[in-house]
Design goal:
Belongs to the Nudix hydrolase family. The chain is an alpha+beta fold and 186 residues long. Helices cover 30% and strands 34% of the residues. The strands form three sheets. It has a four-stranded mixed beta sheet with strand order 4-1-8-5, sandwiched between helices. Strands 3-2-9 form a three-stranded antiparallel beta sheet, with no helix packed on it. The protein starts with a helix and ends with a helix. The model has no long low-confidence stretch (mean pLDDT 95).
Amino acid sequence: MTSGINQLKQDILSYQPTDELEELDKKTILSLLDDPDILLRKQLLYHITSSCWVMNQDKTKVLMIYHNIYQSWSWMGGHNDGNPNCFEVAKKELEEESGIKNYIEAFPEIFSLEIAPVFQHIKRGSWVPAHLHLNLTYLFIVDEKEQLIVNEDETSGVKWINVDNLDNVVREKDMLVIYHKLINKL
């Protein structure tokens, strides 16, 4: 796993932040990478996660899932659970959460990084304390005609949402800031 963490560190070091907040997030994430549990949920204060930002071919819509815990439309992604290859985790989450198998890896390097707050909640009958997701995001392009499949384990919907309508369907205001950042990067 050490070589995987070293590669992850190199990937983050190579990432060029687009604003002051990303620069601060990058420094913070790099400062925490020596934690041996950073890739695991057992590190209760913070851990690495991987997300995918999935756009249609003309970049007017984003593919989102309806997240049951947060009761909001959300990007796809998840915990690394020990895997230091964040790009691989993002692809796995895209396939698991949407059923999509055909996609273009539009940007195999880190597209964005952010520290996202997670508020305390109950998952599968157990409390999850408030913590931080040290998140790396990857960009994918998907044809809107691809068949979508709802993964009912954590979501109750998957659909294309016009980027101009995100403010009306996303209930997590902290996440809207991140989503707008991603749209603006395109």
